[in-house]
Amino acid sequence: MVLLLIAAVPFLMAENSITVDMELYNTVLRTRDTSLNSYWAYTMAGKGAISFKSTGNKNVRADISGDIIYPDSSGIPGFILQKAYIKAKFPIFRLTIGKTRLGWGDGFVFNSGDVIFGSTSPYINLTGTELRSETTWLTSVNYPLGRFSFIEGLIVAPPVSAGLGKLQESGAGIRLYTKASGIKIETGYYFDGTDRSSYDITYTETTEALSINAFHRPYISLQGNFGPDWYLNTSLAIPEFYSTIIEFIAKDTFNISFGLFHMMEAGYDNSITLRLESVILPYFNWTEEDGEAGSYAMLIYPEVSLGLGSTISLSIRSIISPIELSAQVTTGFSWNVFEGFSLLTFVTVNAGDGNDTFAWEPSADSVDGISIMTGIKYIY
To answer: Which end of the chain is less enclosed by CB atoms within 10 A, N or C?
Structure first.
């Protein structure tokens, strides 16, 4: 039914832009079965992204887009609605309503200012063009305060069960954006009412599972330029009601992210892109002896991309856990052979012990240390 509605959109709209982005891959990877026996596996998979965008009205923009993915865990193709929104520009404010993503804070991989979706996890797919792309149903109103300033209010719809969501599980937030002395200053607050069954936190000498149904999430974000672009974000979560242990949970969730980004020419029609980001959770583990996978205080994301003319691109991306000395490294190659048609290759390698964040042979049933993807991408 959803596919039929999407297919009907071009006929219902007088002026629109239709884009299809197809990716098809052959993948070889080293994995493990339920008995933890390693073996090499092969699969062929793909994704088709379909987008319908309005183009006929300068004051109104709309986009309906989704992904058709094969295979999913059941081996059956699945459809994911990624975006379905309308943006309207009124004389004194701007309105956004639908399924989309708001860019609070700054960061390509790590962004402590992204208090709506959360952008601090190390477990992401480094082969994508956009590494953080989660969307949700929301309504926002943006009121300009000047040329480089605005205030924005936000309401996020709650999770749906049997067609309805509970009002107390909604989200709401506000942010202020301005500039001073060439530095972008952004600050805001998000009330996260998403229902959480439990929250494990260590305080005194024990770990207790607490039932917390809402968090207050304030954040601050700064961004500037001194040659390279730089950005700095920080946030924390404060639970409702549990005033006696707010300090412990605030420490557990307090995080800081920062980054540098620079693009430069490298000869005629060539370019080099450099990016370095990190996230720090100061009250997590700073020594390997005290921690386990995913519990360390620092992660680092370096990226180097080389563009050779307008047809060939080489890249190296990595998520590094420096305290335990483990990493996931992805190298990529793209050759734009024809207009819209590219050949792609990605090699991803995990380097770490079995109990590290990125393990060559993890101690659980999961993908092991290496995967090789070769395929094509066609945009039309």
So the answer is: N
pTM beyond 0.85: the answer is yes
Check whether residue 122 and residue 197 sit in a common domain.
Answer: yes
The values of phi and psi at residue 134, to 5°, are -65, 140
Within-domain flag for 42: no
* Of 221, 258, 214, residue with least CA distance to 237: 214
> In this structure, are residues 55 and 17 in contact, taking their beta carbons and an 8 Å threshold?
yes
- The per-residue pLDDT for range 294-337, each reduced to its tens digit, is 788 999 999 999 999 889 999 999 999 999 899 999 999 999 99
- Largest distance between two CA atoms of the chain: 65
- Full domain range(s) for residue 247: 106-263
> Which residue from 58, 98, 96, 61 is spatially nearest to 81, judged by alpha carbons?
98
Q: What is the DSSP string of 291-331?
A: --TT-BSEEEEEEEEEEETTTEEEEEEEEEETTTTEEEEEE
- Residue 81 and residue 112 in one domain: no
DSSP sequence for 329-378:
EEEEEEEEEETTEEEEEEEEEEES-TTSSS-SS-SSSS--SEEEEEEEEE
Note the pLDDT tens digit of each residue in 15-52: 778 999 999 999 998 877 766 677 888 888 888 899 99
The reply to whether 126 and 232 lie within a common domain is yes
- Read off the DSSP letter of residue 160: P
Nearest residue to 187 (alpha-carbon basis) of 241, 249, 239, 233: 233
